[in-house]
Amino acid sequence: xxxxxxxxxxxxxxxxxxxxxxxxxxxxxxxxxxxxxxxxxxxxxxxxxxxxxxxxxxxxxxxxxxxxxxxxxxxxxxxxxxxxxxxxxxxxxxxxxxxxxxxxxxxxxxxxxxxxxxxxxxxxxxxxxxxxxxxxxxxxxxxxxxxxxxxxxxxxxxxxxxxxxxxxxxxxxxxxxxxxxxxxxxxxxxxxxxxxxxxxxxxxxxxxxxxxxxxxxxxxxxxxxxxxxxxxxxxxxxxxxxxxxxxxxxxxxxxxxxxxxxxxxxxxxxxxxxxxxxxxxxxxxxxxxxxxxxxxxxxxxxxxxxxxxxxxxxxxxxxxxxxxxxxxxxxxxxxxxxxxxxxxxxxxxxxxxxxxxxxxxxxxxxxxxxxxxxxxxxxxxxxxxxxxxxxxxxxxxxxxxxxxxxxxxxxxxxxxxxxxxxxxxxxxxxxxxxxxxxxxxxxxxxxxxxxxxxxxxxxxxxxxxxxxxxxxxxxxxxxxxxxxxx
Length: 486
Ligand SMILES: Cc1cc2nc3c(=O)[nH]c(=O)nc-3n(C[C@H](O)[C@H](O)[C@H](O)COP(=O)(O)O)c2cc1C
Prior knowledge:
Blueprint: H1 11-20, E1 38-40, E2 43-45, E3 49-51, H2 67-78, E4 83-90, E5 102-103, H3 109-127, E6 134-140, H4 157-160, E7 164-166, E8 171-172, H5 182-202, E9 206-209, H6 216-221, H7 234-237, H8 239-252, E10 257-263, E11 270-272, E12 279-281, E13 294-295, E14 298-302, H9 305-316, E15 321-325, H10 333-336, H11 353-370, E16 375-378, H12 388-397, E17 403-406, H13 408-412, H14 416-423, H15 437-442, H16 461-471
Parallel strand pairs: 3-4, 3-17, 4-5, 4-6, 6-9, 9-10, 10-15, 15-16, 16-17
Antiparallel strand pairs: 1-2, 7-8, 11-12, 13-14
Bound molecules: flavin mononucleotide.
């Protein structure tokens, strides 16, 4: 594998490699489709550029947005993207992925309200209006990745082998670890509905009921081997989300736009090959009875009949926007976020990043083509650097996606939408270079708060300083060992 993957000086260079690797990634120079407004229900999103949920692990220890959270959201507000998909926010303390994740309880409401207000004000200051800005919040239960105590829906031998009860002491989930009970799941449904109701009262434009990145709701979708009413059949595995959506509808009718970020393909766990550094799949046998969206006869590949069925079901239950994602940040990070350099606990990607991007575009395209009227938000763009917007333009024109959004790309370059729309291109000096330092920060737990804040180290001097501090190995051993995310 090469030392450096991204060597492209022009779109033609990039097109040449797309051909070489046999991937269907196309580019359009002239930016028109990304500038067009998008209709959603009776609202309009001012352009087709978005910002994905990007947790900054910078909340206070009681789950309120902190100074850096405010800073990030305001920068997003100023950035010109008309879709801001607010980050993972836990519905209850047990659901937190790390000690500085946001927590939406009654006590924290005024702080969330202020953050939303400031984000809108920042947007209005630059663009004179915010009626066409859609800001949402992602609600999460971290499930097996909850940092205080894993909550698992079923035993997945390979994933259990990388799930820690106590990471510091290397203690993994035992084979007899109890599963979350049906009763607890029913109560968790109600907690979700309460949190959705808070999102509505806060005045967000939409809520995301998170079903991606192998957190609790995503794990339930793949709970083929679980017994009882939340496992086995597709109907049972989607019971949790169907119940939540039904209850939300009873409480709120159509007053709040409901969205969901889904995993359309979980993939399987990878580990680093000690001799080559390359990621390799953990040994598996077929038929593979675990996870969601995987081909049971070859889980290294997607099988989309159930993901398509899920999107149809969500659509029928009133979900108006789907954000398509895939993979797990914990055990197959190259799938969700194609990268140049691996995070500290990662591996050299076992495929060219272009192949990973192709997987994102192909799967998202299949969903959009099956549901042409649904607002589908696409992922997997950031590695393409300043050419990402040209790929997005082409995907929208080809009806493979409705809104193009970036995660790492947006923390590197919060005003990328503004530049795309005013300059007709992105500045190569501002883009994400996918060296995974944001993830490294997320995985750094050795400060007084038990969690370093995550942001863009190469592009944002504030985080370059934080990164220096984190790599200076300042220890604070008394604090809880948090998990990674999101
Ligand atoms: C530091 C960091 C924080 C993230 N936080 C979230 C989150 O809160 N919710 C979520 O669904 N995805 C989260 N993600 C995943 C991104 O939204 C996105 O799916 C991923 O980075 C791939 O998109 P990109 O190539 O544009 O970065 C996070 C990723 C990183 C690196």
